[in-house]
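Run log // design_07
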């Protein structure tokens, strides 16, 4: 009896091209949490900065190239076959994982601040590629808007940022300090503008008045329209704003002086101290924002006092850490005590003006 023919091995059926794209987007997003918390790989090899940055740039160029290739083949009909799509997806997957692997090769001893900047750019690239997959999956290829949507995708922008990343921890620290100075400067300017115009909600009142024909006076409070008490500062409020503005100005001065000290005296090999300075300085801008938000009417003086005290605490800690570090070679340098005195003066005045709130 003739032997029965051996059963043919089942060939796995590939998903349709767009489904593969959707699955790839999901897979890429699953990588993001791991990158956020991932640690540097342990290795006995000596770290070579030139090799690292060359590999990172090459990985970014490769990701950008794969993104462009995938965009081109999915932006017109006919779509690639399932087999071709599988190959394209594997290339994208490999490019992204190679990018992540290079980031993991940056050791902690090169500086936490530097690692954060590289990690942030890596995350932007992974997320940008996932967004591109979403566009390719959701937007019909025949749509005239497809290329416009894709051209603005963030993956290419993120890849182009790689050569702009600071190359050492001192440069990374200066980059972060500069951003913090700019954030506090913007907050201070917004506060000053609101005070000068005596209109904290510039434009909101006009919008409300424009709608007054459609809403009776009796409806305003019930429908959420602000009344005059909510829109303007009282005389007591305006008096309290003055030391608050001065405190924000002192915050900006503190960050500027810290940045100058790091630029002039910072040493690339003192990564831990530079990281400590950046870590505490990163707390200044959010604390300024909290204070700035609390001065808008209806103002709660107790909240202003609490937020001012929090900001003062952060400022003093930042100045103390800076004073104790190598960026202040002469700890008796007069600018630190002067700024501490200025901060204390602002806080004392805020306490005087809010004392009644504590006695209620």
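design_07 sequence
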């Amino acid at each position: 009896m003739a032997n029965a023919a051996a059963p043919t091995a089942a060939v796995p059926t590939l998903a349709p091209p767009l489904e593969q794209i959707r699955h790839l987007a999901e897979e890429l997003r699953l990588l993001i949490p791991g990158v956020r918390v991932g640690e540097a790989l342990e290795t006995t090899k000596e770290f070579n900065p030139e090799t690292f940055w060359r590999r990172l740039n090459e990985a970014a160029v490769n990701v950008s190239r794969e993104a462009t290739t995938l965009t081109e083949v999915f932006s017109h009909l006919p779509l690639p076959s399932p087999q071709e799509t599988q190959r394209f997806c594997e290339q994208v997957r490999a490019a992204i994982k190679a990018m992540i692997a290079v980031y993991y090769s940056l050791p902690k001893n090169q500086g936490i601040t530097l690692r954060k900047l590289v990690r942030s750019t890596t995350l932007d690239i992974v997320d940008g590629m996932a967004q591109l997959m979403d566009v390719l999956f959701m937007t019909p290829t025949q749509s005239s808007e497809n290329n416009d949507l894709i051209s603005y995708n963030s993956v290419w922008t993120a890849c182009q940022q790689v050569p702009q990343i600071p190359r050492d921890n001192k440069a990374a620290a200066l980059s972060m300090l500069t951003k913090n100075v700019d954030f506090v400067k913007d907050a201070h300017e917004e506060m000053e503008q609101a005070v000068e115009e005596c209109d904290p909600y510039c434009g909101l009142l006009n919008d409300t008045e424009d709608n007054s024909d459609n809403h009776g006076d009796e409806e305003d409070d019930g429908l959420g329209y602000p009344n005059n008490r909510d829109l303007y500062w009282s005389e007591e409020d305006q008096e309290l704003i003055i030391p608050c503005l001065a405190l924000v100005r002192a915050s900006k001065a503190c960050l500027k002086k810290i940045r100058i000290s790091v630029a002039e005296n910072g040493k690339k090999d003192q990564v831990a101290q530079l990281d400590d300075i950046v870590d505490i300085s990163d707390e200044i801008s959010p604390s300024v924002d909290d204070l700035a938000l609390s001065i808008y009417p209806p103002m709660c003086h107790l909240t202003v006092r609490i937020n001012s005290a929090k900001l003062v605490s952060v400022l003093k800690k930042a100045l103390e850490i800076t004073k104790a570090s190598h960026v202040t070679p002469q700890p008796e340098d007069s600018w630190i005590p002067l700024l501490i005195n200025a901060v204390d003066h602002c806080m004392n005045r805020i306490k005087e003006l809010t004392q009644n709130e504590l006695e209620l």
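Confidence is low (pLDDT under 50) at residues 203-213, 215-226.
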